[in-house]
Design goal:
heterotrimer, A: mainly beta, B: alpha/beta, 8-stranded parallel barrel
Chain lengths: 70, 386, 257
């Protein structure tokens, strides 16, 4: 079993279903990678590196995107 | 790497606008063609509103017919911003040895007369006399006598004088920022330095030799003064060297530039008008009338609501008495422009002839009779330093 | 041509649009197009992972508009800096509208945290457009640390009260060495025109457009108002005439010359 904290909420993944990379996680969530920024354990990960950045049990990831604002 | 918008320096600003002499004919034509309607427009602008065009119109020949109206507006504006007060200061001349050859100056190195420079003790003795008259605001003046009246001398003098005077300023040859910084640390808070003339050709003509011969270097001085953190920067042109209207425009652009980029310093205008000096032939100059001088003062006041405006004892008493109602905020009194002059040392030559020879007490009385309060001190340097 | 120059970029439009508070992305896009704006602000928020279709901004054509991220939500300099870095990572653009608003009621900007963040962000190479109260000294200090503009408010965000800070804005404009963009509280096109008439370089409008009954039409009205105000400013409008009160003549002595 693997645990990831996503945007402040913990999400449990059954064995072997844990997303291996950020790109995998986004696919799993159905989130379009093109408009998202990720911060993994406090480090900003550029979009170019989503498919090569591995995820491990216990990490914390922030997924942020542009939204309407003044 | 920081990304900021680049700003042109004052040299480029003057050159671009042709105010360093390069656009002389164009500006003169524009001034001559100013219309009555434009003057009315300029007068209807909010007080303190400055764009070059407004100032140009206010100093134009066309505006001469509106001088009373300008005076009323300037008087009200000065009242609002400065109250019913005029600051009083005294100049202390430290030396008349000079390495420059400025054609118009009594201390020009080519003139032969016995030169005097004061020791620290002698300067302190002069300062004592000045202090006894009630002054708290002292201006140390010297010609370019760098080897003797250098940074160390001035700093030493300042560190003693700051016990006696709440405000110390200097009017001396140009220095570098580091040197001004030393002076600031010693207690000097203001520096006055005139470009003399903003017209390059005229500048060359009247400053043939010595360090002062470099126009660009001279022009950069007020900025060096500001960068050292000085609270007051005095600028001006020696009126009579060149077309006073063009000088006023360049002077205003210089002031505006300093106000924008060094917003923590106060810029003041002075109006040194060429005066009789020993061995200097006056016929070569384009002297201003009293009316011209008044128009210049009023126009600058209407455009720069918070600028200090200083008039010295170069000017005659009756004129000064009127000028204090027309925008002037600071004046000298009982001045001696020869080193050692306050102690009554005979024989030393004055930089220029004083016209208003009244004592400080008489000047104070004159101000009071006009409903103005003479202010002997405006700031205590003790507040700024431990 | 009368261009708005911010950092090293030139713009024709002096109306900036905020994208918040619109009812839908279609309405938002229509309003943006009607405004003629070239700069459009956006915020950064956590992705709502429970809602796949939470991307309202996908509809904005990034080749037409400069998306200017703001740091709204930040309550401290550190939060604002973090958001700025995230925004830069997202787009590669280093422009940021710095907004540090610890007070959730009036959303007024914190001057101390804003100055702190601005100094750091400028050093990191950001083009910083700080949102501030109409404080002339703060404006000068921000310019000293190298911000590309200042963005003083007219009145609190969303209040639609117009130029309540007019006197201070005039001082800021007079003393500024960078473009002054009046932001927040502009509720009517006439407010925007007034800001331009007193010499503002640009205005930013959001609530008044997004919450109008017909946002696209209101947007167009603001566009015209900004142009009108700017044109009036350039034409040198006459001020109210200030009559000097009669007092004894001051220059009579000159007639004896």
């Amino acid at each position: 079993m693997g645990l990831l904290k996503i945007n402040g909420k913990e999400k449990a993944f059954p064995e072997n279903k844990m997303p291996a990379t950020i790109a995998d996680l986004l696919r799993h969530l159905g989130v379009d990678a093109a408009t998202v920024v990720a911060e993994l354990d406090g480090q900003i990960i550029g979009r170019a590196n989503f498919s090569i950045t591995p995820l491990h049990d216990g990490q914390s990831i922030e997924l942020v995107r542009f939204v309407p604002g003044g | 790497m920081t990304i900021t918008t680049k700003h042109p320096d004052i040299k480029k600003i003057l050159a671009d606008r042709g105010l360093d002499g390069s656009g002389r004919e164009i500006w003169q034509k524009r001034l001559a063609e100013t219309t009555r309607a434009e003057v009315e427009w300029a007068l209807s602008r909010p007080p303190g509103y400055y764009v070059l065009d407004r100032l140009l119109i206010l100093i134009s020949p066309a505006a001469e017919n509106f001088i009373e109206q300008m005076a009323q507006l300037a008087h009200q504006l000065t009242l609002q911003r400065f109250g019913r007060t005029v600051r009083l200061y005294a100049p202390l001349y430290l030396s008349n040895f000079c390495v420059n050859d400025c054609v118009y100056c009594g201390f020009n190195k080519s003139h032969k007369f016995p030169r005097i420079r004061l020791t620290i003790e002698q300067s302190l003795a002069e300062a004592d006399i000045i202090a006894k008259e009630g002054f708290k605001d002292l201006l140390l003046v010297s010609s370019e006598d760098k080897d003797f009246i250098g940074v160390d001398y001035l700093a030493e003098l300042a560190s003693i004088l700051r016990q006696k005077f709440s405000s110390l300023a200097v009017e001396i040859y140009q220095m570098a920022t580091e040197e001004y910084t030393k002076l600031f640390a010693a207690g000097i808070e203001g520096v006055t330095l005139y470009q003399e003339t903003y017209d390059r050709d005229t500048y060359c003509k009247y400053h043939p030799a010595g360090p002062k011969a470099d126009y660009d270097y001279r022009l950069s001085a007020p900025e060096a003064i500001a960068q050292a953190g000085m609270r007051e920067i005095g600028i001006g042109a020696l009126l009579g060297l060149s077309d006073w209207r063009l000088e006023t425009l360049a002077l205003a652009e210089h002031a505006h530039y300093l106000m924008k980029h060094y917003w923590q310093s106060r810029v003041s205008f002075s109006f040194p008008r060429l005066r009789p000096a020993k061995d200097v032939d006056r016929s070569q100059f384009s002297l201003l009338s009293d009316k011209n001088l008044v128009q210049m003062i009023l126009a600058l006041r209407l455009c720069f609501a918070d600028a200090g405006m200083t008039i010295s004892t170069r000017e005659p008493a009756h004129l000064r008495d009127h000028l204090v109602k027309l925008g002037i905020t600071r004046m000298s009194a009982g001045s001696k422009t020869n080193p050692g002059g306050y102690s009554g040392s005979t024989g030393s030559v004055e930089q220029f002839e004083i016209d208003d020879k009244r004592t400080p007490a008489q000047i104070a009385a004159m101000l009071k009779s006009q409903g103005l309060e003479p202010v002997w001190k405006d700031w205590d340097s003790a507040f700024a330093k431990s | 041509m009368d261009k708005l120059v911010i950092a090293d970029r030139h713009f024709t439009s002096r109306l900036l649009i905020g994208t918040g508070k619109f009812s839908s992305s279609e309405v938002m896009v229509e309003a943006i197009e009607a405004s003629g704006a070239e700069i459009v602000t956006v915020a950064l928020r956590r992705v709502d992972i429970t809602n796949q279709n939470d991307d309202m901004l996908a509809a904005i054509d990034r080749s037409k508009y400069l998306l200017l991220p703001n740091t709204s939500g930040a309550r401290t300099a550190d939060e604002a800096i973090r958001l700025s870095r995230l925004a830069r990572a997202a787009t590669g653009i280093n422009w940021v509208k710095l907004e540090v608003t610890p007070d959730p009621y009036y959303l007024l900007p914190d001057p101390v945290e804003t100055l702190k963040a601005a100094e750091i962000l400028v050093k990191e190479g950001f083009v910083v457009l700080p949102y501030i109260n109409a404080d002339p000294i703060l404006s000068k200090k921000l310019q000293d640390v190298g911000t590309a503009t200042v963005m003083p408010l007219a009145s609190p965000i969303g209040s639609n009260q117009g130029l309540k800070t007019r006197d201070a804005l005039e001082i800021i404009i007079e003393q500024a060495n960078v473009p002054v963009i009046v932001d927040a509280g502009l509720g009517l096109p006439s407010h925007a025109a007034e800001a331009m008439e007193i010499g503002a370089d640009a205005v930013l409008v959001n609530t008044a457009i997004a919450t109008a009954a017909d946002p696209a039409k209101m947007s167009e009205a603001f566009k015209f108002a900004v142009i009108a105000g700017r044109t009036a400013y350039l034409s040198g409008a006459a001020a109210e005439s200030k009559k000097a009160s009669a007092s004894s003549p001051l220059t009579g002595f000159l007639r004896d010359e």
